[in-house]
Amino acid sequence: MTPAPAEHLPATADVAALLGTKTALAVHTLDEAAMILRVRRSWLARQAAARKIPFAMLGGAYRFTSDHLAAIVRQYETRPASPDHDAAASTRPAPGRRAATPPRLGELQARPLRPRPRRAA
Questions:
Q1: What residue segments make up the domains of the chain, in order of their start?
Q2: pLDDT at 37 (0 to 100)
Q3: What whole-number distance in Å separates Cα of residue 25 and Cα of residue 16?
Q4: DSSP 69-87
Q5: Residue 69 CA: distances (Å) to CA of 16, 106, 114
Q6: Looking at the domain covering 26-78, what would its CATH class be?
Q7: What is the predicted pLDDT for the residue at 12?
Q8: Hey, how many other C-beta atoms are within 10 angstroms of the C-beta on 109?
Q9: Sign, CA torsion 115/116/117/118
């Protein structure tokens, strides 16, 4: 299908009037959004495919509005911690890790050996 000639396309002001806004909605392609966010195109595509970031699917392709891009930045934004939070965080180990205490001599135990996988003959 060939695109419509330029004289048949509505002007930006006409589109804005249809949407009820003063300006037309800016919709960015995957490449444009990646360039604006300064991330790799593949990362942006993976995040959208995993439904981890906001996007619109138009014509089978990912599209991003300015609101989507702002939401993505807010989603991955890291704020500085307060001084009270730093003191509390430094006294406990990171989640999923144990405190670094050396084992006592009597507590060491060897793990049982696993059998070797057999090859099919």
A1: 26-78
A2: 96
A3: 7
A4: HHHHHHHT--PPPPHHHHH
A5: 20, 57, 50
A6: mainly alpha
A7: 55
A8: 7
A9: negative
